[in-house]
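Subject: design request, 212 residues
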């Protein structure tokens, strides 16, 4: 059984119907935007802190084929590579835009996975140097699962770190999904195909680079 299907069924058994209008998993997002000395955006660093329940099931699914004697560090290294490969087909849940132009998301690198306080932390980098983004451009990004409702929001205890460009910061606009769409998204199981295009986008924050 797929992880998300299992999670949805479990929630359905434990919670009343009105409580199901919630995302099926939660991820706290931390982002760093790194510029070079010429004011060019060269990479985006992402860190995902996944909720404990989803972390447990992801780790079981991703390392299920490993030998029982495999140590945790080897298991996490294997799982990080599996997650990077799986996310590649969905652009690592990342949408990049320059003005009205959607940008191609480059292959991620340096994927790392750690287990801290029962929560998986996935970290990876997106190399952006070839996209020709400079300080002052109308650069925006969103991070979301396009097919399902996973709440991926910037960590409220953190800021988007802008490195090597002191005149820039990132403004985050909260999503405002329709209540009917929220109720609908909460009923979906993993094998369901939503007629709503890019469902998760409706629940995604929009982060915009702003420079003096």
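Subject: RE: design request

Done. Sequence follows.
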């Amino acid at each position: 059984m797929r992880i998300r299907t299992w999670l949805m069924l479990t929630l359905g058994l434990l919670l009343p119907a009105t409580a199901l209008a919630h995302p099926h998993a939660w991820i706290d997002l931390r982002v760093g935007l790194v510029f070079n000395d010429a004011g060019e955006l060269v990479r985006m660093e992402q860190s995902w802190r996944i909720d404990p329940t989803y972390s447990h099931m992801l780790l079981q699914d991703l390392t299920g084929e490993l030998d029982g004697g495999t140590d945790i560090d080897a298991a996490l290294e294997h799982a990080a590579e599996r997650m990077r490969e799986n996310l590649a087909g969905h652009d690592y849940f990342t949408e990049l835009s320059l003005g009205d132009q959607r940008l191609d998301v480059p292959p991620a690198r340096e994927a790392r996975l750690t287990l801290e306080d029962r929560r998986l932390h996935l970290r990876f980098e997106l190399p952006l140097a070839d996209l020709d983004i400079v300080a002052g451009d109308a650069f925006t990004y969103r991070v979301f699962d396009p097919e399902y409702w996973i709440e991926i929001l910037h960590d409220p205890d953190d800021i988007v770190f802008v490195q090597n460009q002191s005149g820039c910061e990132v403004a985050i606009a909260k999503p405002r999904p329709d209540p009917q769409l929220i109720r609908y998204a909460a009923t979906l199981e993993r094998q369901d195909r939503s007629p709503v295009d890019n469902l998760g986008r409706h629940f995604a924050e929009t982060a915009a680079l702003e420079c003096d």
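The two ends are 51 Å apart (CA to CA).
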